[in-house]
Amino acid sequence: MTATYNIFGAKVGSHYLAMLTLGTIFGTAYTFSGGSSKIPATPPLNASSSDEADFIKKFLENAEAVLAFLGLTSAVLAAPAIEAAAPVEARAQPRREFKRETVAAESPELAQVNARESEFIASSQAG
């Protein structure tokens, strides 16, 4: 049996109220979502002539074709700009993985912290 509520003199089951509430919420969200508004894939071309606009369109198509051939996406083009913003010293050093042992060997303070952490873990597992 389900719980019933007396609404305007009629008995209404709680499951009907739940369905009404969910329908109202999702229906309102769907109504105000406005459907699909198409966002242009590329920014507008600010070309001074139609020849320049055609050249830019062909260049972008060729660039996309080359990226597709290489298995890359357009987002890869942004990576050099981000890397160029980094200081030269940071770019010149090769990347290396920071393992706990490597960092501890370079810093005695971190070696002490790692030793205390290991002791704490061992004591918490023993007790």
Describe this structure in words.
The protein has a domain at 1-31. The chain has 6 helices and 2 strands. The protein has helices at 14-32, 50-70, 78-84, 88-92, 100-106, 108-126; strands at 4-7, 10-13. Helix 5 (100-106) packs across helix 6 (108-126). The protein starts with a strand and ends with a helix. The model has no long low-confidence stretch (mean pLDDT 74).
Structural class: mainly alpha
Number of strands: 2
For the largest beta-sheet, the strand count, sense and barrel status come to: 2 strands, antiparallel
Amount of helix:
55-70%
β-sheet strand percentage: 5-15%
How far do the termini sit from each other?
A: 51 Å
Order of helices and strands: EEHHHHHH
Strand order of the largest sheet: 1-2
Radius of gyration based on Cα positions? 31 Å
Principal-axis shape equals flat
Low-confidence stretches: none
Give the averaged pLDDT, no decimals. 74
Number of helices: 6
Question: What key attributes describe this structure?
Answer:
mainly alpha, flat, two-stranded antiparallel sheet, 6% strand
Short description:
The chain has 127 residues and is mainly alpha-helical.
Question: Layout of helices and strands, plus pairs?
Answer:
Elements: E1 4-7, E2 10-13, H1 14-32, H2 50-70, H3 78-84, H4 88-92, H5 100-106, H6 108-126
Keywords: Membrane, Mitochondrion, Transmembrane, Transmembrane helix
Region (Disordered): 89-109
Subcellular location: Mitochondrion membrane
